[in-house]
Structures are given as C-alpha cells and as structure tokens.
Amino acid sequence: MPPRYGKLNLAAWAKSVPTINGYKTEPWLLKGAQIFSLNMEIDDDPADNLLPATMHPSIPEYAIFCVTAYPDSPVGAFSIAEVRVSGRTGVRPRAFVLRSFCNNEDARRELAARWGYPTVPGEVKLDIRHDRVIARASAGGKPVLECELLDRDMISGADIQYIASMHLARNRDDGKLVLVQVDPEFTFSKAERGKPRVLLLDNDAFGAGLNLRLANPISATFTTADVTLPKIRYICNPELPAMQGTTKVAA
Amino acid sequence: MKFGLFYEISVPRPWGSETEKTVYDNCLEQVALADQLGFDSVWAVEHHFLEEYSHCPAPELFLTACAMKTKKMRVGHGIIVCVPEFNHPIKIAERTAVLDILSGGRLDVGTGRSATWTELAGFRASPDETKKTWDEFVHCLPKMWTQERFSYQGRSWSMPQRTIVPKPYQKPHPPLWVAVTSPGTEIDAAERGMGSLGLTFGGFAEQEEKVKRYRKIIRNCTPVGEVVNESVSTVNFLYCHEDDAEGVKTGRRLTGTFNYLAAQLLAAREAYPSKSYPSLGLLPSLRQEASGPGDASGAPEGIGIGNPARILREMKKWEAVGVDRVNFLLNALETVPQQKVLDSLRLFAREVMPHFQGASASTSAAAGGR
After folding, report:
1. Rounded to two decimals, what is the model's pTM?
2. Which residues of chain B are modeled with pLDDT < 50?
3. Smaller CB count within 10 Å for chain A: N or C?
4. Buried b / exposed e along A148-164 (16+ C-beta atoms within 10 A)
5. What is the ipTM of this complex?
6. B259–A91: do the CB atoms touch at under 8 Å?
7. What residue numbers bound the domain in which B301 lies?
C-alpha cells in the first residue's frame, strides 16, 4: 500500500473538537438550500498535515470552500461556511472539515451534537448578483473567508457531485475521538457553474495555519437543493487507515 | 476469443534509482514471454502525473520496445489522449506511422480523452472541450495517414497543406479504437466504425447490452477511416494458479491494490462538473466491479483470478456475451512477484487458451508443455 496518509496532529486538533451525542440522530430535511461550493487545488505536502491518518490524500489535493444558506430547519434559518480538505477513506472520496462557521446558535449546537460539525459562531452571507455569487464569512466582525463564482452558467444538477464530509468529534458516551461520516443527500432544482476566485482566507480562523496553501483554481458551483442531513452510517477510528478502522453504525 | 496484455505500469514508493527501471524490465519480460505463449496483443495507456498508479506517459516508446522484443503480438495504444494540449495531431500521425513501420504493421491505435482532473489540469486542458477535440482528431487521423497531401482548417487545430510522412505500413492504415468508459461511448465507437476498447469491467449483463448495441449500430456506421474495425475488447485482471484458493487470494490482493490506487486519483467529474463527463470514467468502475462480492470463494464475477478451471468458466462467459478479446492487467505496485506473474501467464496459456478459437496458445517449451 502507498505510504501516503494524512498526518494531522490528532492530539492538538482534538482540543477544539465538538462532543457528539452518540450516533442515533434522526435525519433533517432542509428544503430550498442555496449551496455555494468552490474547489481549489492546494499544495500537496503541507496539506497532508490537514488530514487524519484514516484518510489518504487525493491526487492532487484540493480544498472545498462551501457556504450554504438554509432558509428553514427545525431550529430556524441558518447559514454555515466551511473549509474542507479532499481525501479518500479507503476507496471513497471524502472531505475532512476543518471548521464550520454558523450564524444561528441553536443550529450550531444541534449540528455539533447530532453530526459532529466543528461549528463556531460566525456571520455568514451569500450575496447573489447577476454576474457572480459572493460568499462571505466573518467572526466577531473580522472577515475570515470571501470567495466568489464569476460568470454564472446553468448546468445540470446531474453533473454535480458533492463529496461526503468527515467530522472529527468526541463521543459523549465513551469519550473517544471518532471520525464521523456525514453524507447528505441532495435533490437539485437548479445548478450553475462559474469561474472560482478566493479573495480572502484567514487560515488560522479555520485552524489550517501554514498547511493550507492555495494553488490552482478548479471550479465553483452554486446550486439550489433540498438537502437531507442523514442518519450516521459510518464512523472511523481517526488513528487507523479506513480499511482497518471503519465501523458501520446504521444501515 | 483472443487474449492480450494491458499495461498501466504502476510503480510502488519509495522510488529508488532502480525502481522504475525494474518495473519496466519486468513488463518487457512479461511481454516477451506472452508473445511466445501466443497472446495476441499488448496495450499501453497514456497517463501523466498519476503517481504510483501509472508511470506510463510515453507509451509509444514502451510499445516500440515491445515490438522489438516480440515477433507476432500486436502493439496497441490504449489509448492516445486526443486533446491538443497533450498531443498535437500531426505528431500522433507521425509517431504512429513510425511505430507501425518498426513493428512490421502490428499497430493498433486506441483513442480517448483522459478522465482525470489530475491530468487535464496538468496540461491546462478544459474538460468541456475533450470530447469535441477527440472527435475532430479521429476524423483527421486516417486522412493524415492516407492522403499524400493534407491540409485542415478545424475548430481546435489547423494546418496548411503539407505531406505528412512516413505513412503507416498497414494499408490502408492501422485499426482505430475508442476507449469505452462512460456509458454510451460504445455508440460513439460504432457510429464511427471504430473498435470498442472497453476499459471497464461491467457485469456480464451490462456488457452484453453494450455489445448488442455496438454491433447493431456499426452496421450502418459512417466510418472515420477507410476500413471498419468491428471489434469488442474488454479489460480484466489475470492471476492463474493451480490452487484455486491461492489464485483467488493473490488475485484479490492484485485487484484490491489496483483499485485502491485508482481511487486516489481525482476524476474530472468530482472536481469540475461538466456534461462532458457524465460518469466517473474508468477508475471507479474498475474498482467497484473488481471488488464485488462474487461467489463464496471471494472471486468477483467475471474476473480472471483463481485456478484454470475457474478462469476458463469466466472467460467463456465473456465470449458468450460477444467479446472478441480480453486484455489482462497482470500486476499493480509489483504486488505479485515477477516469477509468479510469469508462471501465471504460462499456466493460463497452457490450460485456458487452448479452449478458445482464435487464441493461438503455444504448445512450445515456453508454456511448459502439456
């Protein structure tokens, strides 16, 4: 097997992970979500430090900047801004979520407790214009992320492939660190693609430090979809390769 | 049905000064033996930047070496990337003509367009354009091979009138193939009178449908070349051992390693949504089909691993669904020791190949006698 695996310093990262209330959450259906997602290649070698040992980097590695506005949920409207790093758990494409800024305190708490989202408070906004979509996040009034999709072009939702997330969390029941797979289902009603541009990124705000070095832009999409945050199906031991440390917790 | 070899040329880390040379030497030794054993053809991919998975960016050189080491086997590009940022069409016409001459008219030319963002972005090629440039290239190539003077004014490239030399040794020109990965590409092949070079396994039922569709459409094709190449090839793994359990166990290690490597690559569609890439392409399909549950032994359906009797059964099923040729991957990351690969080839040639019409299994000392 290839020797390349994630090299995340688990002990250091674990200091800021959320606590998840077991793995029995019910799904949430979130209708009419507006999803901004931007892919950009990142320097491979430092980025390996942003993936847990469970994961293998994709070739090349890329970061996903995802900003989503949910107009309705069991805890009201909320928006969330995330930076994810692409990788593989075994043979499956997955992305490790570094941090999620969320503008609704109830949503922040529920997302962390139910799915292990690494949420922190923040202001999150999508600015939708005729020629572009701008996604912004800030914390305490300080901007942490600004990126945009330029020259909006309609495409088919069938062409969109959002990859599932991996959240590092501590399980309330046994206190163990665990990687939680969250694989939402999407039913698209509209999809657009455009040129990607990252205007501002506060690496430290996302816990990335010098390990996240932006390189080659790939694509940006803006979609409208009904999103189902699902039951948790798989968890992984963050210290073992996925082939050895994956447990199925629900069908 | 005929049998060939298919090379990705995967190289395990760590990459010492001898690692890549050893892998290439092993491949050439396998090819030389396969020629003696009666295998029909050897195919090589064109891949770039796919660390460990494939260190085969210059297949024309590897295939030239193969041609020099063999007497009968055909040598095939599986495939040449028909995207201008990768290969200029004039260079394709020239290189293939030279290889056809050097091999004594044994060249097959597979065409395709790359399925990974890793490669496309490396050459600054747009995924939206590749299907269009591929189509343009395959319509030009036969004319560049056969017309004394050629000029072209097209969408992705153009040239004033020149004489492209040399011309291929085969007349009118080498057979043309299309890499069939995405659903429906077999229709592209059939409509143009080109061979279907399957690079995914698929189940038997899916393959049978594809073959039927291909054969029906090609009857009324508008060929891009001067000859129609009605042929269906598919790709598979081979590890043949007298002991079935050992064959399946080692074969599964081979398929698992290949699939694990393939999964690390960045498929075009994952990174860059485009109608040009409606499916995930070669790699995930290979992965899923070759890792399926299979029967109680653990051997997935249709895969050439196990003892000769098991492999014979599976190959007969491929023949029954209308496949003309099965091309085998023999190794991944040198997981299988070279001697075992060679022994597997000999055993397959001795025990399995004679059961197929068209497969010219040798009964010479190379196959170990009967």
Report:
1. 0.94
2. 281-288, 293, 363, 369-370
3. C
4. bbeebeebebebbbbbb
5. 0.94
6. yes
7. 2-367
